[in-house]
Amino acid sequence: MRTNWASATAIALLVSLSTSAAHAEEVTAWRLFISDHADPKVTVVDAIDGEKLDTFEIKGPASLHRSESGRTVFAVQGSAGVVAGIASGISFEDHGEHGDIDVEAPKLAGVEITGKKPSHFVEHDGDFAVFFDGEGVARIISEKSVLEGKPDFRQVKTDAPQHGVAVAYGSHVLLSEPNREKPDELPVGISVADKAGAPIDGVHACPDLHGEASSGNILAFACATGLLVVSHGDGSPAIRHLPYADSLPDGKTTTLIGGRGLQYFLGNYGADKVVLIDPTIESDAFRLINLPTRSVHFAIDPVRAKFAYVFTEDGQLHQLDVVKGEIANSLKLTDPYSMDGHWSDPRPRVAVAGDKIVVTDPLQGVLHVVDATSFEKTGDIAVEGKPFNIVSVGGSGQTHEGE
Amino acid sequence: MSRTLKLAAVIGAITSMPIAPSVAAAENLRVVASFSIIADFAKNVGGDRVDIVTLVGPNGDAHVYEPKPADAATVGSADVVLVNGLQFEGFLQRLVEASATKAPIVELTKGGEVLRNAEEEGHHDQDQAAEGGEKHAAAEEGHEEGHHHHGESDPHAWQSVHNAELYVKNIADAFCAADAAGCDTYRANAESYGQQLEALEAEIKAAVAEIPEDKRTIITSHDAYGYFEHEYGIKFLAPEGVSTESEASASDVAALIKQIRQDKASAIFVENVTNPRLIEQIASETGLKVGGELYSDALSDKNGPAATYLEMMRHNITTIKGAILGS
């Protein structure tokens, strides 16, 4: 058993149903992976006791993404032209009526995918697609290859460099279509390539494409005109356009995240609003929520499906009730972080780790910890430098003695 | 009936929520039904006294349904929530949590005889049900080895009309608890509908009796007809398990094709909630002709041949009998 790395809570249980292990422990482990705004490093913190577990030196400041399984964290280092895989050290095995957890040391997986200007990173069904803006190329790799340290990626090309996106969608690949007339502007649509890389069905228009997310069995892209909604069709992806409602003010979504537990999408809509989207209905698909000030970052709660969180530039964290479509609670956490200035200036980011909501405060060098149930601040965790991007990995499961 | 177990022993109490106070007589009971078949039962019991919202509608697949925030709001304002239970609605727990509903969550399979998930014994009905042997379900759910991704019980209990009568009784009980003033109406409606169910069951048994015993093996998409098989003696084989969530593997399909040839299956059918492609492939490889569409986990829309439970069961047995005798 390798749980000593976890600093995890362990509750011994006598479990009579296991024949191979008469004694099992219920273990909870959560880890925070935090990148620095200025320095090329990723710090790993135990979210339960706040202790630093490790720091990984990488090649450039990174934005972070975690895999659905939680086994892998990716550091997309745009300026350095590298995407590095990190094995989170926490994995689960589903046994139906219970799940086993395995907790090991986090480590660099040894896989790096290089190219010009890596930007959008998308996972779909265990395949990761990284888009390299400087080349107009997507490189796709499986989680299995990453964790085995094998750089076995395949490559799909678009016609031109662009700030693009790709999604490995079963045997097809969805690719952003570059704006040929104005190459510096956002993509204009989505095309579908079959297994051989040949385009099918033409281009699905999506002007100013920026923002992609999945919720359940639906994938969506944000456009200036609405959403492109992708679902499983008969043999190939089914794509339809969901226009913004006439009742919405002028605006568009450029960042999109997908609900877990409940199927919905949450996007920005203008600087000081967010929009809740149910893409399965035609009328009332969009619910607009006004924020007190401009939005800095938002995240869904994967455990409490009813809630999402929005951080605004006045230093407040808002608990958003996605069922009622309103802000349920607000909590002042940091000094103001103005959205004036460069888009990539250091500003807070939000992650949910089990029963905790964690917010980075890069200018103070701390993580603020909020209890997700009471929505009250419970503490701070100091992190050297300017903690910026953050993802969490973890959960609960059983370990069996002797395995 | 050794292959069954009492559900009550498995799940214990049905409702974890307090019973909602009785509604005023002037207001209709706000009822949420998890899927279309339950909604039809509820309509027959509740009549004009209830307003029913169905989460997974006609031709929808509850196994893979993704609840929306609007569903949570609907459940949150309900007086009674009717569900199948036996892990049929995999979305139920998260939906109920998100809704913060105070309504009772009524599992309609309560008190019924529950068949064990055939996957527990090996996929594709490798058991001996058709040979007269029946498998025992575990005395205590969850106390077995192995992986149980879709629960240990077959949730498709409505495929036995006998069980449908229990669903109706449980609905009447739930409505009476929530609306005492309407209880006499609910009981009377349930009794009247129960008579229609009894007549339906007699029709099904008579239709099966006309099918030669050596022609009573057929193929469908997923293991949704275990109760029909158990009650009426038609043997169903399927490439997918009791849930449509997991696709059949190539080896599953190969094993099924081998079994179809061994057992000399008489007919093959597509289902309204599943993609027909796999069934069409199996039909092509075995030389069986697709005998039509069966309704398994959802009714048809109102213009279809299975807009009610009574129509669905009649359509299914008529389609099965027609395909077998015509083959």
Automatic annotation (TrEMBL), chain A:
Full protein name: Zinc transport system substrate-binding protein
Domain of life: Bacteria
Keywords carried by this UniProt record: Signal
Organism: Mesorhizobium muleiense
SUPFAM superfamilies referenced in this protein's UniProt entry, alphabetically: YVTN repeat-like/Quinoprotein amine dehydrogenase
Organism placement in taxonomy: Bacteria, Pseudomonadati, Pseudomonadota, Alphaproteobacteria, Hyphomicrobiales
Cleaved signal peptide residues: 1-24
InterPro entries associated with the record: AztD-like, Quino_amine_DH_bsu
From TrEMBL, chain B:
Ranges of Basic and acidic residues composition bias in the record: 120-155
Pfam family, one: ZnuA
Disordered: annotated span: 120-157
Source superkingdom: Bacteria
Molecular function terms from GO: metal ion binding
Keyword annotations of the record: Coiled coil, Metal-binding, Signal, Transport
Coiled-coil intervals, chain numbering: 183-217
Annotated signal sequence range: 1-25
InterPro entries, A to Z: AdhesinB, AztC-like, Bact_metal-bind_prot9, Lipoprotein_PsaA-like, ZnuA-like
Example of a GO cellular component annotation carried by this entry: cell envelope
Any one of the GO BP annotations: cell adhesion
Location of the protein in the cell: Cell envelope
Family: Belongs to the bacterial solute-binding protein 9 family.
Protein name: Zinc/manganese transport system substrate-binding protein
Naturally occurring in which organism (per UniProt): Mesorhizobium muleiense
